[in-house]
Amino acid sequence: MPNTRSIDWEQDNNEEARITDAAQTGLDLAGDLTFELWAKLENDTDGLIHAKWADGATGGPWFFWIQGGKPTLDLSDDGTQTDGHWQRWQTSSATVSTGSWTHIAVTFDIDSETAVFYINGSSVATTQTFGTTIGATLVNNGSAFRINDAGGATVGTGEFDGLMDEVRIWNVTRTGTEISNNYQKELVGNESGLVAYWKMNNSLLDETSNNNDLTHNGTQTYSTDVPFIGTAAASPSHNLLLIGVG
After folding, report:
1. What global pTM score does this model have?
2. Looking at the domain that runs over 6-223, which CATH code has it been given?
3. What is the secondary structure of 128-188 as a DSSP string?
């Protein structure tokens, strides 16, 4: 089905979509991972993308968000934000501004303890801003998987403000070539390593066989503003990649 809708999140409306830990399959990631989505920020350059984060607490295996326009990934091997058990990775200078569709991806390799961010299919300089070692595996806790809501965590400002499309979660470290070759295409849903895939095409249903269907806490709103149409469309209108110094 052609990509004709995206989901529209409004900041401060206490919006979120989630699936409980008991209902999910494949989202208790142990280590290697790849997160991808298209995002169009509206009025703020902070906010949660998705997390498996304890309600009202600061611990969890991961927290994928945007801080001051910089895509950011927090990881933990014991569920606490303490040095040596918690790493934060962030784009070094590349930022995502408001008003344009941008594809954001991040990969993490647990063996080398290395994360790499990609903007519009191209790798960008990535910096570890906190932590030393993450351990052999990420923590496995009972937190719900959620999109948009910070769940009371003290990281960032909370809700994402803008549009999301084509949210993908993998339990493998995707290569740069795999990301660049597929970020402008819809997937089938049975690709190797793909554990969850939400097209946001008037639906919160997971396109994989894991059936990680999300539940919205209200009435979700969709937009006809999308980054691409179909499975192999021409290049979308990209957000400019901003490279700073220092």
Report:
1. 0.88
2. 2.60.120.200
3. EEE-S---SS-----PPEEES--TT-SSSSS---EEEEEEEEESS---HHHHHHHTTS---
